Automatic annotation (TrEMBL):
Protein name: Disulphide bond formation protein DsbB
Translocase is among the record's keywords: no
GO cellular component: membrane
TM annotation in the entry: 14-34, 72-96, 116-139
A GO MF label: protein-disulfide reductase activity
This protein's UniProt keywords: Chaperone, Disulfide bond, Electron transport, Membrane, Oxidoreductase, Redox-active center, Transmembrane, Transmembrane helix, Transport
BP GO annotations: protein folding
Membrane topology: Multi-pass membrane protein
Organism: Rhodobacter ferrooxidans
Principal location listed in the UniProt entry: membrane
Record-linked InterPro entries: DiS_bond_form_DsbB/BdbC, Disulphide_bond_form_BdbC, DsbB-like_sf
Record-stated family: Belongs to the DsbB family. BdbC subfamily.
Cell location: Membrane
The keyword Cytoplasm belongs to this UniProt entry's keyword annotation: no
């Protein structure tokens, strides 16, 4: 292998790097919203954070070490986060009855105008982040010849 070939990332490495950068961006955004802007997350947002935050070190270490098997460790967190974000998005659009909504009048809520970033509600952004990470982790690998 030449030096030019060894310095290029493979398709799998690029997908893993994309998953890592998506998780890092989502984590930093959640921390910015909570710690800098002072907006308290609702219950479902907390659960989504529990699924997203560990993805940063898992995917980062996997990328650094070139460990493709770490994808298996990340997948359960991604699927759980995707399910939570899907449920949360369903609550936001009104597909799920208000009686089971975790955002109450007494506590933090994700339904206010302060919970919209770039014109998109935070639950949709979370859903998009988890979906993008899932796609990056499950796309088929290159030729196995």
């Amino acid at each position: 292998m030449t030096n030019a070939e060894s310095s290029q990332l493979s398709r799998d490495d690029l997908l893993l790097a994309s998953a890592f950068l998506t998780a890092l961006t989502a984590t930093l955004a959640a921390l910015f919203i909570g710690e800098v802007l002072g907006q308290m997350p609702c219950t479902l947002c907390w659960y989504q954070r529990i699924a997203m935050f560990p993805l940063v070190p898992i995917l980062g270490i996997a990328l650094w070490r070139g460990d493709g098997m770490a994808r298996l460790y990340a997948l359960p967190l991604v699927v759980a986060g995707l399910a939570l974000a899907g449920w949360h998005s369903g609550l936001t659009i009104g597909l799920i009855p208000e009686a089971v909504a975790p955002c109450t009048q007494d506590g933090p809520s994700c339904s206010g105008p302060a919970q919209i970033i770039l014109g998109i509600p935070i639950p949709y952004l979370s859903l998009a982040a988890f979906a993008a990470i899932l796609v990056c982790l499950i796309l088929p690998k290159g030729s196995r010849a």
